[in-house]
Structures are given as C-alpha cells and as structure tokens.
Design a protein that fits this description.
This protein is an all-alpha fold. The chain is built from six helices and no strands.
C-alpha cells in the first residue's frame, strides 16, 4: 500500500535530474552552433560530464553529490581513454549517436574539461539541491 507514495517521492526526486539532463543536452548541442570551435569543444566536454552526472542522479536520486561527481568523472575519463583503442572511432563512423556518446580521438585536454564539468555539476547540486545534513 505504500508503493504509490514511494513512487511519488522517487519521481519527485528524479524530476530535477531529468530537467537538468534535458537542459544539458540542449546546451551541449546548441554550443556547437553558438560558440567558436575550441570553446565549443571544451564546453561540450564539460557538458558531457554534467550529463553523465545528471544520469547518475537520475538512476540513484539519493546519491551523494561527491559520489555522483566521482562517477561522472570516472565514466568520462574511461570513455576518453577507450578512444586510444580506436573502437569508438570505428563505431562513430557507423553511427552519429556513437560519435556523440563515445567521441573519436583521444585528447589529453579533454580530461581537464571533464573535471571542470564534474566540479560544476557538483557545485550546482550542492548549492541548488535538497538540504540534507552532512551530505557532501
């Protein structure tokens, strides 16, 4: 009998993450049309990690912000290092979605911009998220 209220709380907790993910996708795709080349690429890298952060919170709404940031950064870095293998480049030749998700070429500065994205998402979550004592 408590399933409905639990589901309501779960949905309420996930809505901000879902909205943030949607805004992040729009910002990431839009930045390519508005910003100059290198700036757009750096913004896209940071926003990629912000999106992964949003997806982590969406999947686990009670996740601590520091954990979500670590997960998002680890996934972003793992994808970047996977590019060394050439597998993402091959998949990207076959699919636009694969190109957007996996990229094509390893680039060391991307690692920095992923960290910027994780720090940004963590900061926004800490400042604008729900207040829970002791959560970092």
């Amino acid at each position: 009998m408590n399933d409905l209220p639990q589901d309501g709380r779960s949905l309420k907790a996930r809505l901000p993450a879902l909205a943030a993910a949607a805004v992040t996708v729009v910002a990431g795709l839009g930045s390519r049309h508005v910003l100059p080349g290198d700036v757009a690429k750096s913004a896209g890298d940071a926003l990629y990690t912000v999106l992964v952060y949003c997806l982590a919170v969406l999947a686990a709404p009670r996740i601590r912000p520091v954990t979500a940031a670590a997960v998002a950064l680890a996934i972003s870095w793992a994808v970047e290092f996977l590019q060394i293998s050439g597998i993402p480049a091959e998949l990207s030749r076959q699919s636009v979605v694969a190109r957007l998700v996996l990229g094509t070429t390893f680039n060391v500065p991307d690692l920095f911009w992923y960290a910027v994205g994780a720090a940004f998402a963590w900061t926004v979550h800490r400042v604008g998220g729900p207040r829970r004592p002791g959560v970092r």
